[in-house]
Amino acid sequence: GDAKASATFVPTQDDYQKVYNEIARLLVEKDDYDDGSYGPVLVRLAWHASGTYDKETGTGGSNGATMRFAPESDHGANAGLKLARDFLEPVKQKFPWITYSDLWTLAGVTAIQELQGPAIPWRPGRQDRDVAACTPDGRLPDASKDQKHIRAIFGRMGFDDREMVALSGAHSLGRAHTDRSGYDGPWDFSPTVFTNEFFRLLVEEKWAWKKWNGPDQFTDKTTKTLMMLPTDLALVKDKEFKKHVERYAKDSEVFFKEFSDAFVKLLELGVPFTSEERYTLKTSS
Ligand code: CCH
Fold first, then answer.
1. ipTM of this model?
2. Which atom of ligand 1 is nearest to the CA of 183?
3. Average pLDDT over the chain, rounded to whole?
4. What CA–CA distances, in Å, run from 12 to 9, 17, 204, 240, 278?
């Protein structure tokens, strides 16, 4: 029979590299989406799968991939992520030995690396769980809120101020969609390239309330084409957060390093790994 489909198949780094390469290939092939890449929505899938973690109860996190099921798939925060899950389905079919929970996190890593972000050492070993492991609604952040809310939500996962700001830099990628969150627009001028531009714009640009019928969001005074969420602006309104925003705006290398460390931690929250070994998978050139 097919060795790779059998229960005793133990994947190596090389096998995970093949999955990485397939995701990277599909990112290039399916370029007729949004700003030309599914990468940003894959990063959001990995983050929403992981960001449900609660350190007090040990529930939630990327182990389980419970967003496959209602009610979690229907949580307001997860609107639009079916596109990311469907994008990855052919990869799951091609490599049936990988769990959805490993696949979704690996896809987030692949997207960040392929969109020129930092290397993200990644560790396999997540197991899929059933609908009973779905998390309650309300564990992911609400963009209409302030710094107190950011600290409550990310504090529940076990992050400190510095890590909260570093992770928020993922808004360098992608955009908001009126039919998903209600918000609209990209954060910077290169939504398919991972950079520290989100921080530079937060510090250097002037932001005003957008005049429209949608939810309260900010627009840049210079071009009126960019956007910031209320939670994004909270990162410069809060003195402690702002220190890190300024560090990252000034030094892309420092941002890349601290983002990578925090993202590794995010993807591993609550996962009962049996191995210590992390793989740094090769970026395609
Ligand atoms: Fe985010 N994010 N995010 N975000 N996010 C949205 C889109 C992306 C918040 C709200 C929103 C992180 C933190 C926060 C991405 C990665 C991360 C949207 C628009 C909202 C709203 C959704 C839509 O309409 O499509 C809030 C609030 C917080 C924290 O307080 C963190 C942490 C990460 C990853 C490390 C990415 C990427 C996107 C773009 C998705 C796309 O489809 O382009």
1. 0.99
2. 24
3. 97
4. 10, 9, 46, 42, 11
